[in-house]
Amino acid sequence: SLSEKDKEIVKTLWAKISPAADQLGCEALSRMFLVFPQTKTYFSHWPDLSSGSSSVKAHGKKVMEGIGEAVNNIDDLFGAMSNLSELHAFKLRIDPANFKILSHNLLVMIAKCFPKDFTAEAHLSLEKFFSRVALALSDKYR
Ligand code: ZNH
Fold first, then answer.
1. Boundaries of each Globin domain copy (predicted)?
2. 25-49: per-residue pLDDT in tens?
3. DSSP readout, 47-59?
């Protein structure tokens, strides 16, 4: 699980990148749809799934708000994510394997947009953080 050091690193990095969260979310989703096209099946009800469309923008913002919640509640990730976990498990029926795929795309975009801050140390802590978020989001699956 996350050490105190991991938590500090994630919070510090988030403080830096959160002003660009909407754009990062939009770009991570756009990239996910291109590189892992199977993920698009969950969003077939959207009018436009192309990169940077208004649906992708709006959803990128929501996802990043979820990540922001996770950062703000990093000591109680499972509690903070429990409603979202229920939503993804029972209503949206998202295969939890996709959480890793989205996390990967978020990492890639953070690395790309904040190369100086994305040290190996930051990479490790973020990797651990996203794994915990994915685990918390998978908690309600039964
Ligand atoms: Zn998700 C939705 C978050 C992942 C799919 N999401 C959602 C929301 C949020 C989120 C916040 C909104 C809710 C409401 O509205 O209430 N997600 C999230 C996060 C994550 C996720 C944080 C991780 C990290 N998702 C995901 C994935 C997928 C998804 C991976 C697949 C692939 N989601 C989804 C859907 C939805 C959501 C489908 C719905 C959309 C609409 O609305 O249309």
1. 1-142
2. 999 999 999 999 999 999 999 999 9
3. S--STT-HHHHHH
